User: Fold this.
Amino acid sequence: MALRSGFWELLSVCRNPGCRVAALSTSSKPAVKPEADPEGNEAVAPEFTNRNPRNLELLAVARKERGWGTVWPSREFWHRLRVIRSQHHIDALVEHRNGQAVVSASTREWAIKKHLYSTRNVVACESVGRVLAERCLEAGINFMVYQPTPCEAASDSMKRLQSAMTEGGVVLQEPRRIYE
Assistant:
């Protein structure tokens, strides 16, 4: 009884306007919510702002930084494939024009490394290309630029990586920019 009377005293104190403690509802009726205006919900804004940062790239109207004509490799791309061959591993990454790596695959990853005899041979390049193509398609990147050096273009491992990327569904050439 003492506990119940203390509860009702607390409840009556909380109903006072000066009380800073949230009051409990004692009524069995739910709180009344204001009704939404059905015509206000269906109104369409006269202007639409697309906030997808890649939308202009996908439509081929985004700017491509051209840079100077004498600069190599060219800076005119949205996504670029970079292949880094170290003494023991092969790393391939897709770089955005702002310099950030978007998608990458490497023979340093255990999921790729456990299926390879060597992390540096032609088969390793092909498997890295296959995995990178799958990851690119999952990320929504279908087009990219690949600018190999003359010695990279002549090597069999780079040719196998390129063929694995194209067989995976990635086009190694970007569409031309549409000028308005």
Remarks:
- The longest strand covers residues 79-85.
- The radius of gyration is 30 Å.
- The chain has a mean pLDDT of 80.
